[in-house]
Write a structure and sequence with these properties.
Blueprint (H helix, E strand, L loop, with lengths): L3 E8 L6 H19 L4 E8 L11 E3 L7 H17 L6 E6 L13
Parallel strand pairs: 1-2, 1-4, 2-3
Length: about 110
């Protein structure tokens, strides 16, 4: 049986600022390639402060809680975890993904 991984990507960046859009695009594109190259089953869910629209290739949740702090990040993560639990989904592993990180191909096969 293939391992099931839930990847949680979160951001407070604003796609309408050019520097933010560039970083968001790079991070999401690298994550998409990492998922496509994975030998395991990976589902990515995202939580953002404002919709990213076509920039985001993954299911997106918009949070109404805007705290640029560890508490804010924790609330975004918890929202995504609770939604997956309420949907009855189970995973072998949960990974956390920041908006300013690039993910290499094969990333999910390292766990």
């Amino acid at each position: 049986m293939r391992r099931r991984i839930l990847g949680l990507w979160y951001s407070h960046f604003n796609q309408h600022r050019a520097s933010d859009e560039h970083l968001l695009r790079l991070s999401l594109d690298s994550l998409k390639r990492a998922v496509q190259s994975a030998e395991c089953d990976v589902e990515i869910r995202t939580c953002v402060w404002s919709t990213l629209g076509a920039l985001n290739p993954f299911p997106e949740n918009v949070t109404g809680i805007h705290h640029s702090s560890h508490v804010g990040i924790t609330l975004q993560i918890l929202r995504l975890l609770y939604e997956q639990r309420d949907a009855g989904k189970e995973f072998d592993l949960v990974t956390f993904h920041e908006h300013d990180v690039l993910y290499p191909e094969g990333y999910f096969d390292r766990f």
